[in-house]
Amino acid sequence: MSSALLLQSLILGLLLGGLYALLAAGLTLYFGVMRVVMIAHSAFLILAAYLAWFFTTQTGLDPLLSLIITVPLFFAAGYGMQRALLSRLRPATLTMMSVLLTFAIALVIEGGLGYLFSGTQRRIQLGYSSASLELWGARIAVVKLVAFGLAAVSLLALYLLLKKTRFGQALRATIQHREAAQLLGIDTDRIAGFGFGLGLATAAVGGTALALDATIYPSLHWHWIGPLMAIIVIGGLGSIPGAAIAAMLLGVTQALLQIPMGTTWAQTVFYLALFATLMFRPQGFFGGRLAQRF
Amino acid sequence: MSEPLLELRDIEAGYGRAALVLRGLTVTVPAGQIVCLVGPNGAGKSTVLKVASGMLTPRSGTITVDGVDVTRNGPQQMLRAGMAHVLQGHSVFKEMTVAENVGLGAYTVRDQAAVAERTDFVKTLFPVVAERWHTLAGALSGGQQKQVEFARSLMVSPKVVLLDEPSMGLDPKTTATVFEQVVRMRDAGLAVLLVEQNARRALESADLGCVLDLGKVHIAGPAADLLADPRMAELYLGGAASRLEEGKAR
């Protein structure tokens, strides 16, 4: 393997890892706030990608502008979904039932997309779709850099929101000790709704980033949910920094393995890492001190 | 006895559709005093605090704070009415600093000048809070975490502090420190309703005591009198309520 190819794979892995990190952050937020396993997260990701594609084909504008609509829309949908559906599940069986409920939501979204846009594969054509930069012999597509930039900015915004704002502190308190948060006057139900909305807003950003560089079709979400679930388990359920670190590591490993093994087999790294984690450290690699921090 | 600041009268309460835990319980907390609830496991001590902080709505009976009926209030309204509840075990936000924990105590307070003033007050009352201000709360010892919880609860200038087994899981030396802090809260003018398994140690710090069993108050009076009561020594400082009832009958 040439050094240029290795460097290219490494950079592509980091760029992909950034996107994984954003999406996994959303997924881990749901679990942190409510102990909900949100199978429909990647379905919303694909829905956002379709909305970006639809926006661009209808208006001719850059798909990034669709975020002005999709981010608030997804936030509101997440809030509504938590308050109207998930908060009604019995606490004793919440995690298990949330799998079933969100699995059903994923199927509804997939079916709706198939009905509205058919099963035909779609791809956004942009003026800069084929543009690339050369770095020490490695070719990096501009759309991948844009997608990474979007993910990085969103993660930074999420970090600042959780760390520096009153809402963020209330959300972190709710995640860490819900009863104590309630006794301090925090409306934990409302905060959990906002937390869910925030998680779904990350799917809006991720889906738009994905649409820049991927061919999309209604059932594509099944391709994403496995790796994302593996990332949050490996990172330690409920730990956003853990999910981000695991996402970057696995993204790079996947990209490096793609060269000798091909795309399909390279993806097995997520499942092998998941098996290894469950066998040797079931709480995840960052499930201790790092869990719930951020 | 001075006028009650908090009064729970004829309270009946339970969880879900299960049987009642509190069965016609009446407890009063006068201003500036420590009232200690003691009794065997399952007597309903922690449930009293949950009812008083709005976490559990009573099925019947009334709760008044300063004469105002707050019976149907939820936790947020109870906080506004002046109730601050410190939970059993450790309830600090472990992955947040002491400063963030204490700051969240004033979550409902909008007046920043009042928050600053209150922060100074709790730092003075609990020096360890000031010393470990920037430390992650989870890195503190059990006793220090408990003091952070006390400080956090005082950020809203409560009228009554509800303390649920503050000595749970602490060694004797740390327990002594925690009880000293409870007394300091009382000396600072607060009323305290204290639930404690360590009955003797708690009654030594309290002004008034109530002995609970099966959801009712069986004996109430000055804490010193309860400590001197031979029935207490035999029963609740290591006995069972049913035997107390037998004693009463005789």
From TrEMBL, chain A:
Pfam family name, one: BPD_transp_2
Any one GO BP annotation for this protein: amino acid transport
InterPro entries given in the database record: ABC_transp_permease, BCAA_transport_permease
Domain of life, per lineage: Bacteria
Membrane topology value: Multi-pass membrane protein
Subcellular location: Cell membrane
GO cellular component, one term: plasma membrane
Keywords: Amino-acid transport, Cell membrane, Membrane, Transmembrane, Transmembrane helix, Transport
Family: Belongs to the binding-protein-dependent transport system permease family. LivHM subfamily.
Chief localization: membrane
Organism: Nocardioides luteus
GO molecular-function terms, A-Z: transmembrane transporter activity
Stated name of the protein: Amino acid ABC transporter permease
Membrane-crossing segments per the record: 6-29, 36-55, 61-81, 93-116, 136-162, 191-212, 224-250, 262-280
UniProt KW Transport keyword: yes
